[in-house]
Fold this sequence. Notes:
Elements lengths: L4 H7 L5 H7 L9 H22 L5 E10 L2 E8 L9 H6 L14 E2 L3 E6 L2 E6 H9 L4 E3 L5 E6 L6 E5 L2 E6 L4 E6 L4 E5 L3 E6 L2 E6 L8 E5 L10 E3 L14 E4 L3 H9 L2 E6 L3 E7 L2 E4 H10 L1 E3 H7 L9 E6 L2 E6 L1 E3 L2 H13 E3 L3 E7 L3 H13 L3 E6 L3 E7 L1 H11 L17 H15 E3 L5 E6 L2 H13 L5 E8 L5 E10 L26 H5 L4 E12 L5 E6 L5 E4 L4 E4 L9 H12 L3 E6 L6 E9 L4 E10 L8 E9 L8 H11 L4 E5 L5 E4 L22 H10 L5 H8 L5 H11 L12 H13 L15 H11 L5 E6 L3 E3 L2 E11 L10 E6 L2 E3 L7 H7 L20 E9 L16 H53 L3 H30 L5 H5 L2
Parallel strand pairs: 1-40, 45-47
Antiparallel strand pairs: 1-2, 2-39, 3-33, 4-5, 4-7, 6-9, 7-8, 9-33, 10-11, 10-32, 12-13, 14-32, 15-23, 16-20, 16-21, 17-18, 18-19, 21-22, 24-25, 25-27, 26-27, 28-29, 29-31, 30-31, 34-35, 36-37, 36-39, 37-38, 40-41, 42-44, 43-44, 44-47, 45-46
Amino acid sequence: MGKTAQEMAAMQKEISISEFFEKNRHLLGFDNPTKALLMAVKEAVDNSLDACEESEILPDLAVKMKDIGEDKFLVTVQDNGPGIVREQVPRIFGKLLYGSKFHRLRQSLTHDEPVMACINGKVEILPIGELVDRYIGDAELRDVSSLNIKVPSFDWKGYKYAFRKVSHVIRHRRENEILKIKLAGNREIKVTGCHSLFSAQGAGLKEVEARNLRIGDFIAAPRAISPPEEIDEINILDYIQPGDIDANWFYVYGIEQSIFEELFKKSLTVHNKTDKSRRYYRIGGIDILDDSWKQYTSKGFMPLHLALRLVPTSMLKDCILQSYYHGKPTRIPVALKLERFFMRFLGLFVAEGHVDKRQIGLTFGKHEDSLIEETIGFARRMGLSFTVEPRERSIRVKIFGNVMSLLLEKLCGKGAHNKRIPEFIFRTSRENRQHFIDALYQGDGHKVRKRNCLMFSTVSARLCNELMYLWAMQGIAACRTRRTGKGFGRNPYTAHVVSVYGTDINSSYVFKTTNTTRMRSIYHNSAALLTEQGTDIVMLPVTAIEVLNEGYEFVYDISVPECENFIGGLGGISCHNSRGQQGIGISAVALYSQLTTGTPTKIWTRTEGDKKTTYVELNIDTMKNEPKVVKEDYLDESPLKEHGTIVSIEMSGRYRKTQGVDDYLKQTSIANPFAKITYTAPDGVKSIFPRSVNELPKAPKEMKPHPYGIEFGILQRMLVNTKSRNVSTFIANDFSSTGAQSAKEICNMAKIDAQAAPASLDRTQIEKLLKAMQEAKLQRPPLDCLSPIGGKELEKSLKKEFPGAEFIVAVQREPTVYRGNPFEIEVGIAYGGEMKADEQIQIMRFANRVPLLYQAGAGATMEAIKEIEWKRYGLQQSGSNVPVGPMVLVVHMASSWVPFVSESKEAIAPYPDIVKEMKLAIQDAGRQLSRYISGKRKEGEQKRRLQIFERYSVEVATALHILTGKEEKSILAKLKGIIENRNKLKEATEKAGDALAEEPETPKQEEGE
């Protein structure tokens, strides 16, 4: 009998990414020695170009291949990019699916700078150093993507803030100056000089290093922050630890019998001898007397300190928490609803309250009758005892109940200097947040008489900062100031004042503006569209910059993939952060080197301003997919004189000039005309590919998916993960080229309730929604997400690479859309010169400026070429084969999504819409080539006619001399004059015809060709 399913299951094991690559290297282009050598150069060069381009550095690359015998090569690639910070080198080169692009971890905040984070479902505003140190241990970089840590981060499309996942936490020694940047409204942040903040660029944002800022520059700050979730109740046991209640008597009532039964199954019976032998049940390391256990199970209760240790708090949410005051029980539900009365009481307590073990005290002015009555009403509603104590200048309300006393201390802090906002306020509804804020300002704030200014004062610096973040969640940019004075005692105090102005006051349910107001200057926005388009960004001017050279041994950063930003500092400022993971990349090359030669990969890297070069040798642990550093050093002398990176890899391979490294680098130079590449071949011959333009291309912008290009699985995932509350807003907000009207039409077509929760749709409804989205009439997606070569740039590049060509032309088609994905086709032709006329034309294929050297026959480019009748354009062609002639044809596809035929990305899939665009672009260029070839042919014919006439003109002149008797020389001169005049007339006529032929053709004429 064969193996059973259970036996086979036991034999299965999970393999790491590295192990998978080791067994399936062909999927990534490492399927033979020639391609492997090319892939090594390709990955390193592509990464270097990307790093330089993102850092706005004109690339200067040096590629060297050395034959070390036995089909082994030493490949070295050097760039002048930004370099790599020391701690990230092992991960980039030694961990697959970590990152293939060279990015510098240069964004760093000081330890004490506050950041907003949602950790395991709870919102905290805490120093970034405290957050990072909590997870990083002794490392300088730690992957925390498996943990539930999120921070507010804006997207680059609509500049909307949402809580997004953190992938890495980073800590490293400070090497640069610290700058203390202060903005209008007294927001401030301390960062390293090379840290990036955001300034305005047109209707968008751009990164700018702190050391390049000047007073008066405008910097981005959050004006609105969406909560991580919206809750309407809390489990109060989530805020109490066992150590908080050891000295108190608290009990949990209403525990289900099934919970006791599960605990009893895990128990162990033991006997402890004190004055007599007693039986205990040992559960989770805690011994419970059998008599006590019987009482717990029969009455369905348990002491709180036991319940917290033995039962998950989520299983107790339907229970009641009970304590006693002077023998009188106080009962509070474990699940506490977040309602207006509770929100306002919390606001009043934070403003006016204090707490000890058994009582809560709130002090009001004698004129604040309504607040006193509201506080008494809260006590009655919660079943708590209270007293009202008139004093000389105030009235104090005391509320008794050690459960509520403990809870308020844990949620809000104990004394005035330690007050804080309960974390769940940041996660509840906008209305609840405003009720809390209103009570806070009524308790310890006021509206300035005859001014539209609402002010709140506190001695708690933490409360001041948290309140500014809370106002941002309401869509309001608050200001803060500080003042000093003397209180009732002799010691001076510092008060922190948080103010809002103008029409922002009207967001309150209590306070309103009293006179005509205008927008305060704090809202000045140098990029007006950031405000007009409803973004979550406000631009604030820099008011002060202070340089700090002392202190702060370490600086800190966090990484948010894709969005690359978070909120930090006092009051909240938008901060740039480090890159997250990118793809297979250079680490796959390092692994291939290790598999074929066993040698480590060597890296030299140096960042701007660094005095030393980091040198690392590493291998990859294929079982763990982790880097193994063999050697690490810091060099005073190295091949790098400035910033940049050198990668040296020894590997098995086979070298050939065609369809190999030589062709790849030449074509890379054509597609990236802004790059200079120096190449040393294995035979020692050095080639230089100079740059033909001195400007970097415009960076593409990120785009949301378009409904036409979405697939079922992606749509299903988006519906589950969206922050939108209903299907209509999901369609309008989560896709490009859709608005409220389009969303309504799509819902009607799909016969789906527009107000339904996105996650509630079943499979049938999702299929209907998908069909309706793809049938609806929508605008095409935005096209600024593309990064083409450029028509003029491509023409210059071809002239540089083919200086002997007789004719060069470049055509750039208008961008179009395939299945919701924008793409653009560019075509270049170089004709004549030293190219061979009796061979097939040379074809160069590119996707997003990367050469495609293999699988030419399987791709869209070849299919488009074969569909064209090349004889019409002056080239020889047999059937539908590739034409013959002295020509190079370049075809480039720039797209947000290139459909490759395989994982190795060697050819573009021949989808009809893509083939059609390629064909039309080639025909555009072909017509211009045809006119050139036709003109050249006519010019040759004219020369031949002139030669014939000139050859026989002597015989004709002699014959006419005999017939007429006139002088032979005179007749010959007139004949030559007639020939030249006729040729000039014909040439002028043909030029006029060519000029007419060059007028633009209609689309019908174009497609009918």
